[in-house]
Specification:
434 Repressor (Amino-terminal Domain), 68% helix
C-alpha cells in the first residue's frame, strides 16, 4: 500500500490540495490522511481508495501504480470509426455530460 499513498500524496500536491482539503472531501480527519501518507497506518479499504481516486480525478489502479494498458493497433473498422464524425460527436456529447456533472457537484 506504500506506493498507493505515495501516489496519493503526489497527486494531491499536484492538484494544490492540502491534507485537510483531501480529508474533508473523503470523510476523514486530517490526521488520518497524514498517518496514511506517512506509512504509520496500513488500513485501507477499497471504498476509501475509490473515494480518494474520485476526489483526485483518477483511478485506484493509477494510484496503485499499475501500468496503463494502451492499444496501439486497432482493427481497420474501429480505426475508421475513431476517425469519423460519429466518434467525434460521441466524444463531444460525453465530454459535455462530464462537465455538466462536475458543475453540479461544485459547492
Amino acid at each position: 500500500m506504500e506506493s498507493f499513498w505515495e501516489n496519493v500524496r503526489a497527486k494531491r500536491i499536484s492538484l494544490g490540495l492540502s491534507q485537510e482539503d483531501l480529508a474533508k472531501k473523503i470523510g476523514l480527519h486530517q490526521t488520518g490522511v497524514s498517518y496514511f501518507e506517512s506509512g504509520k497506518s496500513r488500513r485501507t479499504d477499497r471504498e476509501l481508495m475509490e473515494r480518494i481516486a474520485r476526489v483526485l480525478d483518477t483511478t485506484v489502479e493509477e494510484l496503485e501504480g499499475k501500468p496503463e494498458i494502451k492499444m496501439t493497433h486497432f482493427p481497420e473498422e474501429i480505426q475508421r470509426w475513431l476517425e469519423g464524425e460519429e466518434c467525434k460527436q460521441y466524444i463531444a456529447e460525453a465530454y459535455s455530460k462530464y462537465i455538466n456533472d462536475k458543475m453540479k457537484s461544485l459547492p
